[in-house]
Amino acid sequence: MSSDEDNAQDKPNLATEEYWNDTYNVELDNFKNFGDPGAEWFGHSIGLKMIKCIQSNCKISQEDSILDVGCGNALLLIQLAKLGFSNLYGIDYSAPAVKLANSIVKDQNIENITLKEFDFLTDDVKTLPTFSLVMDKGTYDVVSMDDESKEKRNRYKENIVDLLQPNGMFLIVSCNWTQVELNAQFGDVFQVVHTIPTPSYQFGGAVGNTLSATLYQKL
């Protein structure tokens, strides 16, 4: 077997539920043993930028409903709860992730976050309420890694649209897709409201961004 094949076998498959269950089981143990809630996906600073964007660019009240798709340990929702947002909902297909999130929420005495084990691509989104704002920090990236990426990305977009109330907002952060690519994929059902500045890099004379972060509004 070649070294490339060895590396391919050793590389974790982030598109599988098994990977995330294993990851969050470790983080759940760390929280139980050491009180460590785990990492914030893409780092703490991007979460703060998302919150600032919500406060400044989303025409929603603190009572309006907000969903985090692929909420993981729910740290983003917890930050919103501490700022007074009171109608917060998080879903994740990983049972250990939801268990961890519930443990953290309970530990911090937060009562206005509802968490649910839910597969966004296979479960019926019509069983969920509709929302003024849907957030995604990395979940679309995971969907895009799947071998059936195009079909699942289309299902993802349809479900986002179905879950949003008229003129609802969609806030997405991605490390796999550029701003232009996200606009191409979502531009038929959303319009850009705001683009969040993210860290940039320069290579070979070209300038790019390590993340794309965009607030859209449903057409």
TrEMBL record:
Alphabetized SUPFAM superfamilies for the sequence: S-adenosyl-L-methionine-dependent methyltransferases (SSF53335)
EC number: 2.1.1.-
Subcellular localization: Cytoplasm
Keyword Disulfide bond: no
Entry GO MF terms: protein-lysine N-methyltransferase activity
Domain Methyltransferase: 62-194
Protein's GO biological process: methylation
UniProt cross-references to Pfam families, sorted A to Z: Methyltransf_31
GO cellular component terms given for this protein: cytoplasm
InterPro entries: Efm4/METTL10, Methyltranfer_dom, SAM-dependent_MTases_sf
Keywords for this protein: Cytoplasm, Methyltransferase, S-adenosyl-L-methionine, Transferase
Family: Belongs to the class I-like SAM-binding methyltransferase superfamily. EFM4 family.
Function of the protein: S-adenosyl-L-methionine-dependent protein-lysine N-methyltransferase that methylates elongation factor 1-alpha.
HAMAP family tied to this protein: Methyltr_EFM4
Protein name: Protein-lysine N-methyltransferase ACYPI006326
Naturally occurring in which organism (per UniProt): Acyrthosiphon pisum
Name of the gene encoding the protein in the UniProt record: ACYPI006326
